[in-house]
């Protein structure tokens, strides 16, 4: 791998920056010394609107000095701050460092707000009006984009207001999901199930598990083929929390309802990703957010 890594681009960028600044300075020097051919009255011969003549006067000295100052400032800036390839600058300033410092400052400023929740249980936090107002804000900023503003989800994004939890709905499980994220993977299973008709029969059997409208005869044929699916969803179709596999008996359809939706799932599989949020939130924030989400499906 080291064969593909070099400092070429660092030197390339640095060289272009330095040469560009020097070129500006040289341009000023050369243009200041160059003399255009003019008439005795110091005009260039260009005339507009009948009597408007172009003169050949030098640039004001204050303008030239200001230009030189900007060049000097450029070199000073590049010495103090990053701008020459991988050179960090004498001050060691970085935008990421500035962001980290501001985040730390913000966390320290709001720490007293969260301090009162440190020794409270999730259940008690969920009953605290102030905590839930904070939790709602945390949810809106970090979760609503996928799970919707009312937390009832969208197609492919779980509803957080019911009690259907693929990985468990107790606060500890919710915290783990927030911090570490989740990856749900349903591999394509058509080849393992059998023919196209077998897949449709399995779809009918899956519909029967939740009492949904189905063809009883085809469902009976699909029951035997469901053994392939039982490895993850269980023989009773109620799913396995340890795998995060869906409960097929509760009538909750995350990726669509009906034979076609189930057939598409069996044929093509599906992968869902819940990105980890642990590095974006502090521990107190995660605790309050957990309590808020837990409270959505456990309202008294």
From TrEMBL:
Residues annotated as domain Cytochrome c: 130-210, 217-297
InterPro entries for this protein: CcoP_N, CcoP_N_sf, Cyt_c-like_dom, Cyt_c-like_dom_sf, Cyt_c_oxidase_cbb3_su3, Cytochrome_c_Oxidase_Subunit
Gene Ontology BP annotations: oxidative phosphorylation; proton transmembrane transport
Cofactor: heme c
Keyword annotations of the record: Cell inner membrane, Cell membrane, Electron transport, Heme, Hydrogen ion transport, Ion transport, Iron, Membrane, Metal-binding, Oxidoreductase, Repeat, Respiratory chain, Transmembrane, Transmembrane helix, Transport
Annotated heme c 2 binding sites: 186, 229, 232-233
Domain of life: Bacteria
Membrane-traversing stretches: 12-30, 62-81
Subcellular locations according to the entry: Cell inner membrane
Family matches, as SUPFAM superfamilies: Cytochrome c
Residues the record lists as binding heme c 1: 143, 146-147, 274
Cofactor, how bound (note): Binds 2 heme C groups per subunit.
Keyword Ion transport: yes
Cellular component, GO annotation: plasma membrane
Molecular-function annotations in GO: electron transfer activity; heme binding; metal ion binding; oxidoreductase activity
Annotated pathway: Energy metabolism; oxidative phosphorylation
Main location as per UniProt: membrane
Family, similarity comment: Belongs to the CcoP / FixP family.
Protein function: C-type cytochrome. Part of the cbb3-type cytochrome c oxidase complex.
Subunit (UniProt): Component of the cbb3-type cytochrome c oxidase.
PANTHER family: CBB3-TYPE CYTOCHROME C OXIDASE SUBUNIT FIXP
Protein name, entry field: Cbb3-type cytochrome c oxidase subunit
């Amino acid at each position: 791998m080291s064969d593909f890594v070099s400092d070429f681009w660092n030197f390339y960028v640095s060289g272009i920056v330095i040469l560009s600044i020097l070129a500006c300075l040289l341009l000023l020097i050369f243009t200041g010394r160059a003399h255009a051919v003019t008439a005795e009255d110091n005009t260039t011969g260009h005339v507009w609107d009948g009597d408007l003549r172009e003169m050949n006067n030098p640039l004001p000295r204050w303008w030239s000095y200001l230009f030189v100052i900007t060049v000097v400032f450029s070199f000073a800036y590049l010495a103090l701050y990053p701008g020459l390839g991988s050179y960090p600058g004498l001050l060691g300033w970085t935008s990421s460092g500035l962001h980290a410092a501001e985040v730390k400052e913000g966390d320290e400023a709001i720490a007293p707000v969260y301090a009162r929740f440190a020794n409270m249980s999730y259940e008690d936090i969920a009953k605290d009006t102030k905590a839930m107002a904070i939790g709602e804000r945390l949810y809106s900023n970090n979760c609503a984009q996928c799970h919707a503003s009312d937390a009832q989800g969208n197609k492919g994004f779980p509803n957080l207001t019911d009690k259907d939890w693929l990985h468990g709905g107790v606060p500890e499980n919710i915290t783990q999901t927030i911090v570490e994220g989740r990856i749900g993977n349903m591999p394509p299973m058509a080849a393992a199930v059998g023919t196209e008709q077998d897949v449709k029969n399995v779809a009918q059997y899956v519909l029967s598990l939740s009492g949904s409208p189905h063809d009883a005869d085809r469902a009976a044929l699909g029951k035997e083929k469901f053994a392939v699916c039982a490895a993850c969803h269980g023989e009773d179709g109620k799913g396995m929390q340890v795998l995060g596999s869906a409960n097929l008996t509760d009538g909750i359809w995350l990726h669509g309802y009906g034979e076609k939706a189930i057939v598409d799932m069996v044929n093509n599989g599906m992968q869902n990703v819940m990105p980890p949020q642990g590095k974006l939130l502090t521990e107190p924030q995660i605790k309050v957010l957990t309590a808020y989400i837990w409270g959505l499906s456990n309202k008294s």
